[in-house]
């Protein structure tokens, strides 16, 4: 009979009968071995073959399939929003996983959330974060996916230009397409 197991979890397979010895033929994650049991950790559905060695020379072969459900394989997309001047960037995590019954997000900050999707999350400190989504099927088997997120600092535009050659605010660059720039002198007169 087939056995169901979670991906990467230890499962002990046992065979019984009148053979004097049992030989487990090599399979992914299991080298050829002898004995009436074998412990395996398959990441995907795998069939294991066992040969019974009888005293009369008979060598019947049987198979046991360990079925690993991966229909709830996690998948998500990272979205960045909030490109307003002097405002921090916010991040959304759009869950694209199918067939899962439960979710856990590790946002790389020590925060764990269980919502299906994450909206408008603010990373207080700019830098690289590892975001992990773990999805669970009805049997409670977990699968995880980790992606890198580069949290950017707030978009801050200087409000002063002093082109005097000292290397500070000598140039004014607006990195926003379709922007309009108006320049006023210190008395508020448009130039």
Q: Can I get a quick summary?
A:
By secondary structure, this protein is an all-beta fold.
How do the helices and strands line up, and which of them pair or pack?
Blueprint: E1 3-5, E2 11-14, E3 21-24, E4 33-34, E5 37-40, E6 46-53, E7 61-68, E8 76-81, E9 90-95, E10 102-106, E11 112-113, E12 118-121, E13 127-136, E14 142-151
Parallel strand pairs: 1-7
Antiparallel strand pairs: 2-5, 3-4, 3-6, 6-7, 8-9, 9-12, 10-11, 10-13, 13-14
Model description:
With 191 residues, this protein is an all-beta fold. It is built from no helices and 14 strands. A 5-stranded mixed sheet has the order 1-7-6-3-4, with no helix packed on it. It has a 4-stranded antiparallel sheet with strand order 11-10-13-14, with no helix packed on it. Strand 6 and strand 7 form a beta hairpin. The N and C termini lie far apart (84 Å). The mean pLDDT is 91.
Oligomer: single chain
Runs in which pLDDT lies below 50 for 5 or more consecutive residues are none
The level of helicity is: under 10%
Number of strands: 14
Which overall shape is indicated by the principal axes computed on the Cα atoms?
rod-shaped
**What is the count of DSSP helices, taking H or I runs of 4+ residues?**
0
Any idea what the radius of gyration is? 30 Å
Distance between the termini: 84 Å
Which structural category do the helix and sheet elements fall into?
Answer: mainly beta
> How can the largest sheet be summarized?
5 strands, mixed
């Amino acid at each position: 009979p087939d056995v169901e197991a979670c991906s990467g979890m230890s499962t002990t397979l046992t065979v019984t009968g009148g053979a004097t010895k049992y030989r487990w033929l090599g399979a992914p994650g299991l080298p050829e071995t002898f004995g009436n049991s074998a412990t395996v950790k398959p990441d995907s559905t795998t069939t294991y073959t066992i040969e019974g060695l009888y005293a009369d020379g008979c060598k019947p072969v049987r198979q046991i399939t360990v079925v690993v459900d991966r229909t709830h394989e996690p998948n998500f997309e990272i979205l960045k929003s909030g490109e307003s001047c002097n405002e921090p960037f916010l991040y959304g995590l759009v869950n694209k996983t199918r067939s899962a019954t439960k979710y856990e997000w590790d946002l790389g900050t020590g925060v764990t959330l269980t919502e299906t999707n994450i909206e408008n999350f603010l990373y207080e400190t700019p830098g690289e974060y590892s975001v992990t989504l773990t999805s669970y099927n009805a049997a409670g088997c977990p699968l995880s996916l980790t992606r890198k997120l580069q949290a950017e600092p707030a978009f801050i535009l200087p409000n002063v230009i002093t082109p005097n050659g000292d290397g500070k605010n000598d140039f004014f660059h607006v990195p926003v397409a379709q922007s309009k720039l108006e320049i006023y002198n210190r008395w508020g007169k448009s130039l």
